[in-house]
Amino acid sequence: PRSWMGAGGGAGGEEGVEVHAIYEPRQSCSSDEALIEVDQAEKARLDAIAGMLGLVQVGVMLAHPAREYAFSVNEILLAATLHAEALRKDPEKGKLFVTMKARPVLSGEEIDGVATMEAYQLTDQALALCGREGGPAFTQSKSDCRVAKVAKDCCFIIDKKESKKSTMEPFVARVFDIARPFKSPLQVGGFPIANRPTEVQNVGTMGLYLRQRKQRGEPFLQTVSDLHLLLFLGSNLLDMAVDMPVLCSKIAEGKAAELEGFQMMINCYAGID
User: Fold this and answer.
1) CA-CA distance, 91 to 39, in Å (whole number)?
2) Which of 21, 174, 242, 254 has its CA at 20 to 30 Å from residue 124's CA atom?
3) What three-state secondary structure class fits 166?
4) From CA 92, how far away is CA 208, in angstroms rounded?
5) Average pLDDT, rounded, for the chain
6) Bridge partners of 4?
């Protein structure tokens, strides 16, 4: 079993956030940790296409094997970095940023199924400590990933006592209202997901995806409304400055009748008559 990280793109409003798509950055994972490998060109393309669709990053999703603690210190530091980035881009919507956690159901828990999802938000104090000038106020202990060790010029105040170490429980707040019904206009699954070693993105897999959808009689608007397909098109076929803004606006506005030109171009590239 391995840990895993994904970033959620969606829309935020007065009642919370709606997750329309999940993007998985390049990462190398162990049972204890997910190490993110940032590809700046890919990140810029993702941010641009998300913006064209009217989406912003609304959260981060972590997954891990069975364990008895909620978060490692490095997971909190990662979530804080992404939360701070969301706040810089949009101070109001950034306040809604959530940290989601997928985990196995532990023996003895009264939860149906074998896995469960949980939502959290980092406290303002956690964001301040992680984002302070000069670097985070704490780092992960080398001997215990649950424990944070403060920098020399800092200390934790726990139960009115100074301490050089702490676990992460005081820095996160659980969000319980996560089960509202919602259906995104974007596809979930279907086209191979970017950065998964087991899933290949190329002209062949795109052609297979398009043929399968055509055989089902699926409208092209629905077929092309897949974030991972759009990322592939933006890096291999369509111009990010000219074509992609037009295509994404048609998708966002649901204008299926105005996609004929794009359908012909994409089908031709995939070798479909």
Assistant:
1) 25
2) 21
3) strand
4) 41
5) 91
6) 63
Q: How many angstroms separate the CA atoms of 55 and 47, rounded? A: 9
Structure tokens at 166: 């702490």
Q: What is the pLDDT of residues 123-145, one digit of tens each?
A: 999 999 999 998 999 999 999 99
Residue 137: partners with Cβ closer than 8 Å, 6 or more residues away: 129, 130, 150, 151, 154
pLDDT at 1 over 60: no
Look at residue 190 and tell me whether its pLDDT is greater than 80. yes
What integer pLDDT is reported at residue 93 of this predicted model?
Answer: 87
Cβ pair 88, 70 in contact under 8 A: no
3-state secondary structure of 40: helix
What average pLDDT does the segment 84-101 reach?
A: 92
Orientation angle between helical segments 260-270 and 203-215, nearest 10 degrees: 130
Burial class (CB in 10 A: 0-12, 13-18, 19+), 200: exposed
Backbone phi, psi, residue 148, to 5°? -100, 140
Distance, in Å, from the CA atom of 249 to the CA atom of 54, rounded to the nearest integer, reads: 9
Angle at 70 between CA 64 and CA 76, to 5 degrees: 90
The answer to whether 166 and 151 are in contact (CB under 8 A) is: no
Residues 240, 20: Cα–Cα separation, whole Å: 21
Model confidence band, residue 228 (pLDDT cutoffs 50, 70, 90): very high
- Rounded-to-10 torsion of CA 175, 97, 190, 39: -140
Taking CA atoms, 169 is separated from 42, 124, 134, in Å, by 34, 14, 24
Residue type, 86: A
**Contact call for residues 256 and 220 (beta carbons, < 8 A):** yes
Burial of 103 (0-12, 13-18, 19+ CB in 10 A): middle
d(CA 6, CA 11): 16
Q: Whole-model pTM?
A: 0.88
